[in-house]
Amino acid sequence: MKAYWFDNLPGDQREPHNSGRDVPASYLSDLGVIYEHCADVSGVDAIATSRQYKNRDEITVSPEKMGDIYEEKVKSFFHEHLHEDEEIRYILDGAGYFDVRSEGDDWVRIWLEKGDLIVLPSGIYHRFTTDEKNYTKAMRLFKDEPKWTPLNRGDETDGNQFRKEYLKAREGLAVGQ
User: Sign of torsion, CA 71 121 110 1?
Assistant: First the structure.
């Protein structure tokens, strides 16, 4: 895992966009983001049990697996959104980027590769993309039946109950860039 401030320069979303300014794990923690490295699935099983996750599936994001819809799907995953549930992803193979919004509404880019697990809290604005190798195989964990419902950022999401709860939990935790 490597975390840094997104450079906001033009270019393909799958490029590193590394500003050269690293973000410490403690800042991610202040945002409510949890990171673990799991050498194998037994580590994921332990986390799933402790967080009461009962279901999982796997997704491979690549041109070979998705064919003609790959570019469209990668672009849709990159729309800024939130979920009303935690989002847990474990990278089984390949690599990709999760971008999360900071307290100041800037992007923090988190590069994950095989063995990395991330937990994004409900209500955090985020987005995902593969890296330049165009290949990410991930396990998605769910508390109940598998569902993935993104709520794209807009006026209605700013007033969302889960967004408000997320912001309230972060009050007083502001950390300077």
Answer: negative
Q: Which residues are annotated as a binding site for Ni(2+)?
A: 81, 83, 87, 126
Q: Are 3 and 108 in contact (CB under 8 A)?
A: yes
pLDDT for 176 equals 44
d(Cα 92, Cα 41) in Å, to the nearest integer? 9
Q: What phi and psi, each to the nearest 5 degrees, are found at residue 51?
A: -100, 5
The count of other CB atoms within 10 Å of the CB of residue 120 is: 24
Binding-site residue numbers are: 81, 83, 87, 126
Does 175 fall in a domain?
no
pTM for the model: 0.93
Q: Could you tell me the two tokens for 176?
A: 């300077």
In total, how many domains does the chain have?
Answer: 1
Walking along the chain (177 residues) 10 residues at a time, the average pLDDT comes out as 97 97 97 97 96 95 97 95 95 98 96 98 97 98 84 90 94 55
| Residues annotated in a binding site for Fe(2+) | 81, 83, 87, 126
E strands, 77-150, are: 81-82, 87-101, 107-113, 116-120, 126-130, 136-142
Domain with 31, as residue range(s), is 2-165
